[in-house]
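R.M. (postdoc): so does anyone remember the format we settled on? I'll just put the structure tokens first.
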């Protein structure tokens, strides 16, 4: 049996741990493994490499992905050919390689492309990957814990300068349309205010918390997700990339909030956009273990011929869900989420009036 492995979409800590685990588990079963470089770009541009035990040695703790990735490479709407569908040529290359199956590691966009290849006759197993923790039917994604750790440390550092100067400090996190990073990172970092996309916020409610902290002689830490928006306002779009499967790039809501808060409070307001430091670096121990579990589970699905499924964590167990149920869907913070209720219980301002 010959299995291809690729990583699609954005990078995140733990990808190499998955590559290592799925490769070693398949090799132990006598399977030939080929790495496809830069996601689906490698299938279009014919860029592959063999994966053996030596190729994946020493990469468990390494950030990024040794195979490379690409967040615009969609063979069904190829950016290198004016949006043309080159999937037939891609499938011809798959047959030329002699691939019996593909393990696709990525987010909802990657799963959508993988599902379309499944319908063309390529057996696929998916592995969920996103720092945003927003893949449907999966309770925890590797990379998320590492991103939360970065946010928590950033808030710890911002707190010392905020305390010294009596400032309002805003930290803007990633997360796209889901608030998981801001919510969990904000709780871990002791934020006074947490603002997420699922709950439109009131600028006046945020200002009221800042003024109350001022009167008490304190400072204010605000953790805001890039997709958050005030009531009646649209999300803040940094730019649009038309050739991307997800063309909207969010960013800048922290500075938007700073401009509107400053006239309402006495303290100086400053903003830090955390950006891609949340994606980079060494994965946490939790993410290394979870990624390893996902890689082994993916190899088991291949061995069991359970194609068309994605590995998922539900409760404490690894399971599998149909890729069709995941493609182009997001998991957002529900209004009755335990973390949301915990934040309310300890007095965190969530932007509500």
């Amino acid at each position: 049996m010959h299995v291809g492995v690729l990583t699609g979409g954005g990078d995140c800590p733990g990808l190499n741990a998955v590559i290592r685990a799925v490769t070693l588990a398949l090799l132990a079963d006598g399977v030939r493994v080929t790495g496809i470089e830069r996601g689906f770009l490698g299938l279009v541009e014919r860029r592959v490499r063999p994966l053996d035990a030596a190729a994946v040695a020493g990469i468990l703790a390494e950030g990024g992905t040794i195979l490379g990735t690409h967040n615009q490479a969609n063979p069904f709407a190829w950016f290198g050919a004016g949006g043309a569908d080159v999937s037939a040529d891609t499938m011809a290359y798959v047959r030329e390689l002699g691939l019996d199956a593909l393990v696709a590691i990525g987010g909802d966009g990657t799963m959508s492309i993988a599902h379309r290849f499944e319908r063309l006759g390529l057996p696929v197993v998916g592995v969920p990957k996103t720092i945003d923790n927003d893949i449907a039917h999966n309770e925890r994604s590797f990379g998320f814990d590492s991103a939360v750790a970065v946010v928590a440390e950033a808030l710890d550092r911002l707190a010392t300068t905020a305390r010294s100067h009596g400032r309002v400090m805003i930290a803007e996190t990633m997360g796209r349309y889901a608030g998981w990073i801001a919510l969990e990172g904000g709780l871990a970092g002791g934020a006074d205010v947490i603002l997420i996309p699922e709950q439109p916020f009131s600028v006046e409610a945020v200002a009221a918390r800042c003024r109350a902290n001022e009167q008490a002689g304190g400072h204010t830490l605000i953790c805001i997700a890039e997709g958050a928006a005030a009531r009646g306002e649209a999300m803040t779009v940094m730019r649009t990339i038309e050739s991307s499967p997800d063309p909207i790039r969010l960013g800048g809501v922290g500075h938007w909030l700073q401009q509107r808060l400053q006239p309402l409070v006495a303290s100086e307001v400053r903003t830090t956009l955390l950006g891609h430091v949340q994606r980079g670096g060494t994965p946490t121990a939790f993410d290394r273990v979870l990624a390893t579990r996902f890689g082994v589970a993916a190899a088991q699905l291949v061995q069991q011929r359970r194609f068309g499924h994605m590995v998922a964590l539900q409760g404490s167990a690894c399971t599998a869900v149909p890729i069709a149920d995941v493609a182009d869907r997001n998991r957002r913070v529900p209004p009755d989420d335990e973390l949301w209720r915990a934040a309310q219980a300890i007095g965190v301002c969530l932007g509500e009036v």
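R.M.: ...and that's the designed sequence above, right after the tokens. Also worth knowing: The chain has a mean pLDDT of 94. The longest strand covers residues 2-7.
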